[in-house]
User: What shape does this take?
Amino acid sequence: MIVEIGRRKTGVDILLGILLVVAGVIILGDTALVTVVSVRFLGWAALIVGVAELLSALFRLRAGHFWSTALGGALLAVLGVLILRNTLAAALTLTLAAGALFLASGVTRVAMSFAVPEHRWGLLVGGLASVVLGVIVLFNIVTATFTLLGVLLGVQILVEGFTLMFLGRPYVREVPARSTTAGVSSGQR
Assistant: This one.
């Protein structure tokens, strides 16, 4: 079997793409609200998954891995509660982590641009853009706290919408391989 990878675009893809673009524009219209909503969503998700993991640890009393599952669930539940109680501090922490990630990945790309001559300019330009973005976020942490997460979410949804509208959805399917010995009888091999 040969795996075939391609893209397929239908009318539904175009409609969903348009809806995603509209949602992205709405999100970019009020990034502060979206930041708060996304941080609260993250807090609730952590709390719910943490409680579910604690409950699943009870079913593993005899099977092993009880303590690691219980500890992981408890930590995740506590993290969810902390995020829900201190939404602003959680947004600040996530923004600080995003700024540090932009800066670190940018420095890494710039360093790799000198080691990989085939992709030097792409890595260098992308790396410098990430470094600049990281420095802007880290030096304007208070302003970025209220907007960065909403802007990132809005831009991501816009890109997904345009990708879906213009390129469609990716698909993967298995295709039977063609035999290279077709037409050769068993006596001629």
